[in-house]
Amino acid sequence: MTAPWRILSLPPIADEIVQGLFAPLGDAAEVAFPQTRDRAGLLAALGDADLVIGDFTGRLALDAEAAAAAPRVSFVQMPSVGTDNIDLEAWAAAGVPVANAAGFNARGVAEWAVGAAFALCRGLAWGDRAVRAGGWPQMEMTQRNPREIHAQRVGIVGFGAIGAEAARLFAALGCAVSYWTRRRRPEAAATYRELDDLLATSDILVLALPLTEETRGLIGPERLALLPERALLVNVARGGIAPDGAVLAALESGRLAGAALDVFEQEPLPEDHPLRSREDVLLSPHAAGGSVQSQLNLLGMVRDNVTAAVQGQDVQNVVNGISNQVIRR
User: Which pLDDT score, from 0 to 100, does residue 1 have?
Assistant: First the structure.
């Protein structure tokens, strides 16, 4: 009799949820969890795992050391779109396909980007804080130059599932939408512009691309200086694409009139970080994709892909260049 596949599920997805996802596999699989949520617990648990469901927070990074500690692992499923917390090359060298959950939260993140843009344009968070503090800043609100979103030129950096959905939603509101990505999309319902031109013509700049060595620092001080005066920044991508220090400097100079940030170079954002004290910044704890619908999409994609691996079927969304056929080691 073939031994059951041992599925190692890393936090923070709750143990009982994972158990429920794979209960239909019966004796074909068993689910395990690290004894401790630390480096030692991860490395100890990898030794007898056949499949791994990663930690989307990045706390338990699946780096080269982790790949070396996993002689039996045949497939890694990341419960996220981003793969900056896993060493894709190391797992590829071991012959292990790594898949992400591409597109699971595209609508949720795109809606957050639009909602954040609304909040920045109208100063909603500022007004809320002022009223809660006992004020009635009716005239001050109008003096802060509130904008109607349809009158804004929107530039989207990155045009994957999230960028494309954000472009569609902004266009539906009447915005002129442009985009930049490394591979031009002829089918896009938005205007393609070279990156520097995009920044120079964007009243609202939305970042929606993955963090890689090529994109780290892509929107730094020089490029932020290309934005029109009093532009707005919405970052639903990754911290480090627009470094926190560069964003802070652009806010202080007035080049940026506001920023909505769901991601940061260091997460959690340090308690004493100056971004926390700025009235012109909308802060979010990397939760733009956390809608109920997105979470259900994610669990379904993880379930389907891991189940396919156990049942000898091809997996989807492999991102490290390895065959989508999982071969048990």
Answer: 60
